[in-house]
Structure formats: structure tokens, C-alpha cells
Amino acid sequence: MINTVSYKFARKMALASIEYPADVNEFEKAGLTPLPSEIVKPFRVAESSVQFECKVKNIIELGNEGGAGNLFICEVLLMHIHDDVLDAQGRIDPHKIDLVARMGGPLYCRASGDAIFEINQPFDKFGIGFDNLPAKIKMSKVLTGNDLAELASIEMLPAESEIEAYRNNPAYLELAERFKNDSESLEWHIHEYAKQLLKEGNIRDAWKLLLG
User: Fold this and answer.
1) For residues 12 and 6, is the Cβ–Cβ distance under 8 A?
2) Angle subtended at Cα 100 by Cα 70 and Cα 22, rounded to the nearest 5 degrees
3) Do 153 and 85 sit in the same domain of this protein?
4) Is residue 52 part of a domain?
5) 73-122 pLDDT, tens per residue?
6) pLDDT of res. 58
7) Least confident range of 44-58, 110-124, 125-139, 174-188
């Protein structure tokens, strides 16, 4: 059995992780509710929003030093999902399920709220890649690695006609006029503006600006 852990009962989960003697009922100790499974013998945790009934296929020992543990390879036989964590499209809403993940020692992280972000990268579209980024962009003092990766995700660079047309953009013209005698400052501010465009999800205009 694999049961997901939501923030609302994370402390109970931690209590259940104590190595009680084999004859101790950990459901009772942790204040959790056992729920009969449909295929496997172990009980499910009723409080868990998603429960996986599994068959263990393999156990890989990861060492015998402290904290090494074992890796369990399982086949999911049946999955149970609480309706109250689904969105209007019938998909799991990460904010509703409010999962927690184990880190190291006493540390955990909460996968909801501002911690959740999107990366829209279609698997059937090939980005130009880092190797096709112009050197002056790749060596930018403003754009981060994530910014560069977003630029590298585009399938095709804008055509010269698009770049030429963008040179009439009021924001570009204002920068060009303000820093016409300081090429270093102009490049800096263009990269800052491109960074803002990327934050807004406007990759193509960011490229037009950078190549202008």
C-alpha cells in the first residue's frame, strides 16, 4: 500500500513513522483510520486523498550505512482518489490535495500555494537548445539559467522581418534612444526587459527584442 500524505495529517504521519513493536497498532497510535483494501491485504489510510494498492515487484537494497534504506519497485493494481481533491476537469488539484514531501532529517516541504509553478514544455516539439543560443545572450549578466532554458525551448527563431518590425516597438525605441551613447547599459536594459517578457510568458517577443 502507498498512501499520499496531505498537510492536514502530516503530524499523524510522522507519529506513525515511529518504530513501534510489531504487536502495536500504529493506526491507533497515530489517530488514523484503517480502510479495507479491495485487492491487497494491508489496510488503506482513510485520511489519505490518494491510495495505491500495489504488488511489490522488486526490492533493491541501497546500502547498509545509516540512512541508506531500500528502494521498492511496485506495480499499481488499483488507485483510489477522493473526489474532494479533483478539479472541474476531474484532475487532481495540487492546491486541494496539499501534499507534503519528505526531505532530510525533520524537514518536509509543502507542495501547494506559491510553491507550485508551471513549466509548459510540449514533449513533441523540439527546442533549438542551448547550443543554438547566440554567445551574447548565453553570456548575459542579467538572464538566469532558467531564462536561457526558456529561450532555448522555442522551436524556431523569429524571422528577420519580425525582428525588424519589433524595432518600432515603443519600449524598444525608448531604450534605444535613452542609451544610444552607452551600448553596455543598452544591452543590460534590453536583457532586463527580455527577462520581464519571459516572466509574462512572451518568449517570441523576448527573442525579437534580444535579436533586434
Assistant:
1) no
2) 45
3) no
4) yes
5) 999 999 999 999 999 999 999 999 999 999 988 999 999 999 998 888 77
6) 97
7) 110-124
Q: Which of 3, 96, 10, 91 is nearest to 48 (CA)?
A: 3
Residue type, 190: I
Query: Under DSSP, is residue 93 helix (H, G, I), strand (E, B) or coil?
Result: coil
**Of 67 and 8, more confident:** 8
Q: Are 92 and 163 part of one and the same domain?
A: no
Classify residue 104: in a domain, yes or no.
Answer: yes
C-alpha cell at 9: 495529517
* 135 φ/ψ angles, rounded to the nearest 5 degrees: -55, -40
CA distance 55 to 77: 7
Specify which residues 76 forms β-bridges with: 54
Q: What is the pTM of this model?
A: 0.73
What is the distance of C-alpha 36 from the center of its chain? Answer: 33
DSSP 59: E
At 109 the three-state DSSP class reads: strand
Domain that holds residue 95: 2-115
How many domains are there within the chain?
Answer: 2
Domain final residue, candidates 60, 81, 115: 115
| Confidence band for 212, pLDDT divided at 50, 70 and 90 | confident
Per DSSP, the residues of 76-92 read EEEEEE-GGGB-TTSSB
